[in-house]
Amino acid sequence: MANWCRISSRTISNHVKTRVNQGLPWGAVGINQTSGLSSALNPGGPVSDGNWRYQNRLPVPRNRATLFCNQRFESTVAEKQRDSFLSSESDDDHQSVDFPGGKVSYISKMNFISESSQTRVPCYRVLDDDGELITDSDFQQVSKEVAVKMYSNMVSLQIMDTIFYEAQRQGRISFYLTSAGEEAINIASAAALTEQDIILPQYREPGVLLWRGFSLQEFADQCLGNKADYGKGRQMPIHYGSRKHNFFTISSPIATQLPQAAGIAYSLKMDNKKACVVSYIGDGGTSEGDFHAGLNFAAVVEAPVIFFCRNNGWAISTNVSEQFRSDGIVVKGRAYGIRSIRVDGNDALAVYSAVSAAREMAINEQRPILIEALTYRVGHHSTSDDSTKYRQLDEIVYWKNARDPVNRFRNWVQNCGWWSEQQETQLRNSVRKQLLEAIQVAEKTEKPPLSEMFSDVYDYPPTNLEEQENHLRETVRRHPDDYPADISV
Amino acid sequence: MLGVVRKKMLGQSLLKIRPAVSVLRSYSSSAKHMTVRDALNSALDEEMSADQKVFLMGEEVGEYQGAYKISKGLLEKYGPERVLDTPITEAGFAGIAVGAAYHGLKPVVEFMTFNFSMQAIDHIINSAAKSNYMSAGQMSVPIVFRGPNGAAAGVGAQHSQCYAAWYASCPGLKVLTPYSSEDARGLLKAAIRDPDPVVFLENELLYGESFSVSDEVLDSSFCLPIGKAKIERVGRDVTITAFSKMVGHALKAAEILEKDGIDAEVINLRSIRPLDRSTINASVRKTNRLITAEEGFPQHGVGAEICASVVEESFAYLDAPVERIAGADVPMPYAANLERLAVPQVEDIVRAAKRACYRSVPLAAAA
After folding, report:
1. How far is the C-alpha of A67 from the C-alpha of A96, rounded, in Å?
2. Which of A198, A300, A457 is closest, CB to CB, to B133?
3. What Gene3D superfamilies has UniProt attached to this entry (chain A) (predicted)?
4. CATH 3.40.50.970 correct for A11-46+120-443
5. Contacts with A239 from chain B: Cβ below 8 Å
6. Where are the strands (E) in A225-320, listed by range?
7. Which of A25, A26, A203, A397 is most open to solvent, judged by the fewest CB atoms within 10 Å of its CB?
């Protein structure tokens, strides 16, 4: 795997072309086609060179027998034929026919477009697994200041996740979910945006808020639901929201943020603002109807929105092979007429570069962009989940250690001479200390008062709510023993 | 103000109201009439004109002039950026509209019928109704969801359900049910101006009905308060509450009852959430008898809530049990005779009022 990654970007595209011409009879099974066959034969364990491949964890495909057929299917011929007649379309105008939606060439041979391409869409990466810059790669350079800020935030996010997770286990907060393994996605995508760009998160992107200046204390206050919480204690933990940081409050139903993002982008477009909307979604969320509606609509109204899909392989216990049968999410972009890219989500520089470029296109060309970031969900889905029940511990440990985005980016920053071991120790200790203090302070802070229970249901409280509140106050006053002593009325 | 309105209207080639306006100038004392359709159209037009952030969105609202022609002329006047024809995805466009509202625009979303709003109900409830509360005031949703609700004629079960009770049970939403043209104008304007999400339930069969309107109603600043019911007919013997089409039925029932010496008070609820409990209770305390009338299904309906409210607040004043008149507890059948049996008729209200006044023997209670 490591060897394959050292190939420069130009060679990658040549490599892909070779694959297409070979017309292999099966579609999206492995990242590396040649070794795909051998590991399909041995679905049980890691391949001998110690590297783990995606397909080892995929359930055996139902049509596995066809993997070994040498027969060239008609459908593989279709791929090439389709390409060839598309290019001749402009030469033979009398060969085209008119329909609502435009002119289209016709063909008298019946060919079905294959359900999958011969090769998977390649993944854009800039740093190899050890954090070394791949030669001749396109990327957006970052300054020392930005790189150090990015790295520090990735570390802070990692530590914040660890400490809050522990706090939940200790019973101090009711729920938490980590972004372990997705620190590069969180921080690098945020770093490529400006403060005016509007974020509609799913729920595994607190790093974006961290980047924008949400303090560790503010995170703790929301998780503890105390009166300093901007959400006034109304939301369960990790449902952060901050108007001043242009980070829309997290909402639990999946994928609802996608059409909303198109709507906000439409609003930016009407106002002619030089900003875009960035909406995040997981691999599982793309199965929702709202994914279709959001992308389709954004394309139709030409809205400046970046749809960022974190494909981390798992939707609670549902592996991607059970979620969809396409080559991930990136191929769906074209179905909506949306420009797309697949990027290595554990490569902070690649994510940064891709998001920067996407932002330019979204704003200057007023169009949506789809980014699929491949990554791995190192943590459990949430504190309500134990993922060892449905996946191998070895797999989790491998990704946590060998493919950690934080380590990888640190290597690059260190190699640039911008970071040292000493700074590392200092930072980690400092963040840990701040977090522990923040939790303690948050725990001691009072919970929101009763007066905040009935506010904000409407812009202005209607009489029936005022009556209910008065009734409740009266009840508390009359029966103080039935209510905790520290309840603030 | 009216002069300005008139000028704008004269500049429009498509509004049906124009002939009535020119009549206005010469015969200022004669009654003016307006259909509910024109009332809604003029309200939309005036609010879009007054506030650039208001825009329309829905299937067929633009080029087709609206599935029921409610948005007639608006695409031509305001352009495609403010009158959006959407792809067929209720969930999609409801979500998009909520997003736009989060960012400060004021969308008016049309559902071809509220039956189709069920495909978008997650966005209406979870994205719109609850957002202001869950975000502690950081995300307000000044959106209006409007469209025909309830039974039409011969359209079957999936086009005939009344959603008043469903939406009105959800905190964070406001639910309005206009009856007359005055209601349509005043309440739609109020809904568009309101910073909270509003579900605006119209009625297809009322669109073509014409009502007299005063000058005040025709004024572009006209607005009705949300949460106030209107006493359409003052009476002394029995209170009949109704909304939307049933108000017309209740008024006809009241005329019939008058001949039998029963003086019915008819309350046009106008607002299901917030429900005007004080007007209803004040009326019941006066008449001591209550009939609730609605088109929708009986279980957990609007009448059930009104009955509970009256029992809680005015129990001692009741001289007879509260009776609910509602649609039959079946998905709406199509055959004309069955449909007629499934929807409350004027006679049902008359008989119920007589029972409440002990002028006739109640039917044995069904299990």
Report:
1. 37
2. A457
3. 3.40.50.970
4. yes
5. 134
6. 277-282, 305-311, 314-315, 318-319
7. A397
